[in-house]
Amino acid sequence: MLLPHHKPLSAADAADISAPSSAAVEFRRVDKYFGPHQVIHKVDFSVASGEVVAICGPSGSGKSTLIRLINQLEVLSGGEILVDGQPTSRLKGKALRRLRTHIGFVFQQFNLYAHLSALENVSLALTRVHSWPNEKARQKAALLLQRVGLADKAGHYPAQLSGGQQQRVAIARALVTDPSLILFDEPTSALDPEMIGEVLQVMQELAHSGITMIVVTHEMSFAREIADRVVFMDGGAILEQADPERFFTAPQHPRAQRFLQKVL
Ligand code: ADP
Ligand code: MG
Fold first, then answer.
1. Which of 40, 120, 164, 216 could be cross-linked to 63 through a Cys-Cys bond (beta carbons 3.0 to 4.6 Å apart)?
2. Which of 31, 34, 238 should be mutated for ligand 1, with most atoms under 8 A from CB?
3. What is the Å distance from ligand 1's center to 142 Cα?
């Protein structure tokens, strides 16, 4: 089904953008400015629990900003974002830290700590943020490294790992606090082509685990085969949302059609 990018608002909606929501994530008329430049325009967008959403669109269209707003790596300028039904825009201090541990984030550039081993990168949030005892944290981190196929690399430092291995460590790290939602920002864009498959494989397994996933990606094969829904952005707005088959075979918006002609 093709959804309009701006839902019509009733007077009641307009009065209360903080009303409860049953979605895992819900954007309500979200605006984001960088200085005078508006880069996200009144976005309404919602993701159901357990859903896997792929976000695609040209460079500069606002994809990274959109997902960074969810865990407040960027602070919104207007509207509201609800996570598990709770408004998040006013959270501070401990409540904001709690929100963030509830949301995993995987970056294009891995962002591992160079001076820590793979195991220590994964266990860090448990010991630092959640005050787990060292041994318990290491055991959980080892399980997660096993899950991403890196049980034998626990003692390696990032510089001793390939890009694909580093990104799998980053995924294990994002999962260590048992988030119910994980955000990926072009997780394979910095990888050599031969390493993309091993990362997509881990993401595919994750997609079947029931976790909610929002994935900004240029990997159209992932969007088509793994995602439940594809969201197309341009100019800071969502121009089209559809199930993957429909999006790739019969895109409706002219800009989506042009984009697909270039990337497919
Ligand atoms: P995408 O991820 O789709 O390539 P971004 O969300 O990174 O797009 O960027 C959207 C727009 O916001 C672009 O015009 C970009 O230049 C601008 N932008 C992103 N981050 C910042 C920032 N920290 N300061 C100023 N402008 C930014
Ligand atoms: Mg980006």
1. 216
2. 34
3. 36
Query: Please, what is the end-to-end C-alpha distance for the chain in angstroms?
Result: 22
Instruction: Please state the ipTM of this predicted complex.
Output: 0.99
| Strands 52-56 and 212-216, sheet pairing | parallel
Ligand nearest to the CA of 34: 1
Please tell me the pTM assigned to this model.
0.92
Task: Tell me how far apart the alpha carbons of residues 240 and 212 are, in angstroms, rounded to a whole number.
Answer: 20
CB 24 within 8 A of CB 181: yes
Q: Taking the CB of residue 5, how many other CB atoms lie within 10 A of it?
A: 18
Q: Distance from the CA of 68 to the center of ligand 1, in angstroms?
A: 11
Kindly give the number of the ligand 1 atom that is closest to the alpha carbon of 57: 3
SS3 category, 17: coil
Between CA 251 and CA 208 the distance in angstroms is: 26
Give yes or no for a contact between 219 and 240, defined as CB atoms under 8 angstroms apart.
no
